Amino acid sequence: MPFLPENIFLKIISGELPSKKVYETDQILAFHDITPKAKTHILIIPKVELKTAKEVNLENTELFGQLFLAAKIIAEQEGLDGYKLHMNVDEAGGQVVPHVHLHLLSADYKSNL
Ligand code: 5GP
């Protein structure tokens, strides 16, 4: 699937589009996926505009690390003992929304890894 023509997550960050938020800091936002692929399916995103994880560099590694920190905190909040983290990178990697996001999924998620 190609990238969606619009970065809908920027509209979620600005509040223009509604979302079921579960966690927020000055740099990170997390909310329930609109079409959950597991009992718990949460998207964790940076508030700054980064299209894909290919944009990681030595200046923003701390921000990328915060996605993992948020995942740990949210998993505890949600009562998840173990969980799965998934990130699609770029169109060829299955990414559809052109804004970096980490999928936090409960263990019932059926991945084919
Ligand atoms: P990707 O395939 O880009 O890694 O995942 C994008 C995810 O965003 C999909 O799981 C999809 O269900 C979710 N999504 C797409 N549009 C919206 C939306 O408007 N709100 C929310 N909460 N999730 C969305």
Explain this structure.
The chain is an alpha+beta fold. The chain has one domain (8-106): 2-Layer Sandwich (HIT family, subunit A), CATH 3.30.428. 21% of the residues lie in helices and 21% in strands. It has 2 helices and 5 strands; from the N terminus they run αβββαββ. A 5-stranded antiparallel beta sheet has the order 1-2-3-5-4, covered by helices on one side. β1 (21-24) and β2 (28-32) form a beta hairpin. The longest helix has 17 residues, at 61-77. The two termini are 20 Å apart. The mean pLDDT is 97. The structure holds guanosine-5'-monophosphate. Guanosine-5'-monophosphate is lined by residues 8, 17, 19, 31-35, 43, 88, 94-97. The site of guanosine-5'-monophosphate has 14 residues, from β2.
Task: Summarize the topology.
Elements: H1 8-14, E1 21-24, E2 28-32, E3 41-46, H2 61-77, E4 83-86, E5 102-106
Antiparallel strand pairs: 1-2, 2-3, 3-5, 4-5
Guanosine-5'-monophosphate is lined by residues 8, 17, 19, 31-35, 43, 88, 94-97.
